[in-house]
Amino acid sequence: MAVVASEPRRRATHARERLRAQTAPLVWFDVEWLDPPGDEAAADQEVSDFLISDCRMVHSEDGLRHWALTDQVRKRVASELGRDRLLASLREATHQPPDRAQAAIARALEGHVSPIQGRPRREIAADLQVAQWFADVLPDLGDVVEIAAELEREELLEPLRAFINDGFYGRTTELGRLHAHLRDDGGLPLVLSGVGGVGKSTLLAKFVTDVVDGKQAIRFAYLNFDRGALTADRPMLLLAEIARQVALQVPERGATWSWVIEDLRSIDASELQARGRASQQTIESLDSPAVAGVTGKAMDFLGSVSRDGLLLVLDTFEEVQRQRSTTTYLLWSLLARLRSSVPIARVVISGRALDRGLPFDSEPLELLELDDASAMRMLLQAPNLRISEVVARRTIDLVTRNPLSLRLAIDVLRESGPDDPLLDLELQEGQIQGQLYRRILLHIDNPKVRQIAHPGLVVRVVTPDVIRHVLARPCGLRDIDDEEAQELFAGLELEATLVRSDGTALRHRSDVRELMLPALERDQKPTVDKIHRSAIRYYRDLDGADARAEELYHRLMLGQSRRTLDEHWNPATVASLRSSLDELPARGQAYLAAAAPDSISVPAAILRTADADEWANATKASALAEIRAGRPEQALELVRARRGSDGESLLPTVEVEALEALRKFDEALDVLSRTRASALRRSKGADAVTLTLARVRVLERMGDFAAARDEAKNLRESLARGRGESALDYLVATTTYLRLLRRSSREDSDEYRDAVAAAVTRAERLPRRELASRPGLLRELLAEIGDASPKLLAFGVGEVGVARGHTTALDEELTNVDATDDTADDFSEEARSRTGVKVTNYVNEVGLAPSFSNAIKQSYQGETDELYS
Amino acid sequence: MALWIDVPTGELDESAETLINIFAANLRRQEEIDPFLEGIAGIDLADVPAVGKPRTFWTSYVSQLRADGLLRRVVEKLHAEFPKDGVAPFLTLRLVGHGGWYDETDPLIAQFAGPGRSLPIFGRGTLRQELMLLHSQGYRTLNISGGGRSGKTFSIQLAQLLFEREKLDFAHVDIADWGTTRFTALELVNTIATELRIDLDIKSVDVDKEPDPYTRARLLLQQVRQPLSSTSRVRWVVIDGLDRRNAEPDATAFVEKLMKSIDVDGKPTNMRLLVTGFNGVQPRGSRYHVLLPVTRADVRAVFAMTSSQLGRVSSDDELEEWTDRAWDGFDPAKQDLCDLGDSVYNIVKTELIEAGN
Fold this sequence. Notes:
The structure holds two protein chains of two kinds. By secondary structure, chain A is mainly alpha-helical. Chain A has 42 helices and ten strands. In chain A, strand 9 and strand 10 (506-508) form a beta hairpin. In chain A, helix 6 (144-163) packs antiparallel against helix 8, helix 9 (235-249) packs antiparallel against helix 11 and helix 20 (464-471) crosses helix 23. The longest helix of chain A is centred in the N-terminal third of the chain and has 22 residues, at 71-92. Chain A is globular. In chain B, the strands form two sheets. Chain B has a five-stranded parallel β-sheet with strand order 4-5-6-3-7, with helices on both faces. The longest helix of chain B has 18 residues, at 337-354. Chains A and B meet through helix 2, strand 1, strand 2, helix 3 and helix 4 of A and helix 1, helix 3, helix 6, helix 9 and helix 10 of B.
């Protein structure tokens, strides 16, 4: 920010006041527009001083830089001048910038303020900027918070409106079904399903905008899982996003609930993780008291502002389905909770091929092609296209009434004209879109470009290099040089119906590829395999995750062995490969599900084709998720569905965890003994460490502290000598050992003190991010060494939070922290994550008294001891 | 130490004023200098107004150079070409204005940052820790949040201090530089690339045709993930002001995707991302810090700490009196933190620097 010369640092001269008044109602200005008083030299000095002290340079739409008052100065000057002088100044201005915000200033000063509802987003943004500058002198502009909420609401709706900008055709029945669902859903979500390009997003856009523009005050939230950052395994985050969107629609109420949204986000970041155990997976649930409090508040809010209805739309749901099945369960738990708390809430789910594998009952609505009249209107009313009804009819006969086909046909008609003889090509049964695709190919003038385009869509990315080194030979072009490859690339780049360009690479349109690839794989297998092999050779010599993703994609398409795939596996490729999951053969899908079990799930039928390791990797996440969901019996069933060649468990740690949840400790020890012996025989040290830790845990939970302590001690010593995979293993073993010593009343022993010192040294040396990757460990560690490392405690409290109401000592210490927070009187229901952040802030500003660190430590001890009982 | 003139910004300050004064007073033979200036900075002097008004000319010219990140280069060239024209004194000033009055550069305890060390940092103990988590503890992204006037932009000065001290590569995108002009994802990407001196040609991208801001953001990210990756040095990207009204939804969407890409996929490699006012979805593992309002105690602590760091002995009464002067006239609900910062800086100048001399 500029260092502004404030009074009395630099007393404002008459000239300065005049310059400020001149420029206050202008969003930007040029020096030539200024009219400073005095002779030339004095004016030069005044203008320069004014620019330096009060202004900054800003970009404008014309691409040039201009001057503008800083926000700080503008607000102050406007307040001093008042409305009438600002208006006079504006009227005297010789120039006004051609800018939306400038027009908004003029409207506001002239008193032509109109309601913001229903105005274009960018006009609202301009109004908001003006309101922020001139709120003091122009109260008619409205409340800044309300304008900001309206702006964000329009930001939500604008992409939806864009879908129907070019017209909306037909779908009367489907729209009727959606509106009927809104009135009465029979307790079920409506599932809108259809192939890519059939018009699901357009239909949803029409439905949502109809609802929003309707007479009833129905609230809505639109969650698109194509967004990437929004994932179904973060229910708190999804609820926060639902609450955020709804709050925007009731700004007068929403602002007072913003803390709930903050809490939900905060819980998403830390709360659920904090309750996991160090050597086990996180246990997630919506039902813990701390989480339930905030969840309940969010539900209260949604219920209180949604009297006429609440519409929740979940789009691109196939992304959720591609993840593990229990992710869907977590999401469904959230929706069930929402439905029970807000009975008027309605859920619409949309995606491709949702008819299979949904873990809940639903009302299906399958979207098919357009009715005939709508298809005709789509063609006849398409922008920039004039065709007769005869041509439209013939086109429909050729390409069917699928909206994607019609859109492709419109592109072709725009290019070729209705009199093109190729339009009369014979229609082939079952190959309608393929026929259309071929017709598009035929419109490519350059035959070599046509050869590259097909079968070139076997590769996902086309560059000049890919054309030269991967495609040229298999596509029958023999050797070509760089120049020709560049020309072919430029030629293909023009085919917007087939590819999208980013200037350096082309990507085949996913809908076209989805349509054509299976037929290509089936009909031209030798050529296709040749392209795959050629692509592997090309990409294996390139660096970077993008090259790895393409290399792996082609290896998976070729159905290469697991050993080969393992040699080339790179976790950074998951997101890229997941987008092509449906293209892969079953074996490739099974491999991916095993390699990235947290991100990808596949149907059981595909999993059966996997080998033992692949099966175990792919099943592990689902089984753990069942345990988290409170269903250990189902988890046992999953892990026992397949055994190793000697009858051993393929997922021993998960099996043990399920047995622990059922309190079948002896059975768990038996599984561990057999598999640990097997791991040691096969020199699998890392497995042995994990199994030993599990064994210590089971013994501790059985109350056999002496046996557990001995095992933990041996393991720790072994890891200290360098045996083990990571420093985290050592910390887990040491933390466990410390806890067992404490629980055996040996806190005053030398071995306890030595272990504390070692743990502090090791933990402080670890990057905090690594430590925070196991929040359960962090909490257990702090339960033992919290008072010995203030640095770690200050960090860890913010990560795992602290709970009120568990120990008197901590509650008393927290009163000092609460004294710094004037946002509430009662903190008893505050989420532990929020309390944790407050404590971190307090510690960073005030410091940490020994009594406080001890109270936190004891609180953590209580939590972990409960967990291991 | 990096000079302030390395940071591209549309803002002016005391330091810029000093340089403008030096130029205006010493480089009066404009007709002789013009061809030289055009040659080294590529700025068409016809675009710089006020020929015949030397000080206004230099004000505009220096501002443009600074906004383009060319100031250092031009100053050094001017010094080489016109050594007798008084540019040398500028170069000897490490921090123009009151250069050198405050030497504390440890971001964990520094009380003043910014050009001329004129911007006090009130408290911000947790923010200081957060910056260190990104710098040395493996974290990669941080979102600084807070209501209006909470001092989000002010806090960026702490990061600048870290960059200076540790000689870190960084790009600083201040959305306020776009005034009321739409700030899109494409603008963001191009600015980052320019600041990091990465050659990107993505004008041909037809992102505007995509109705969904997240789709536009994804298309852009696909193109820049690789070029923005660094194989050697860590590079910081600071994006300040995503809650400004001119920030388009696709800019926020791009940051959301970039944040996930950095945190989850590790791409672009070796990148640290620091944003303010971001209201999208953060991935797990990303840091989030909400700035709390500045309190009277924070102001007093600045006086006390600065006094101690400068080796002055200030009594409790003095500290109280200075705090009253700065705090009593400040209304956090109406005024910007800059106003409070100005007051505190002026008091420190008067009571601790000038009085000490």
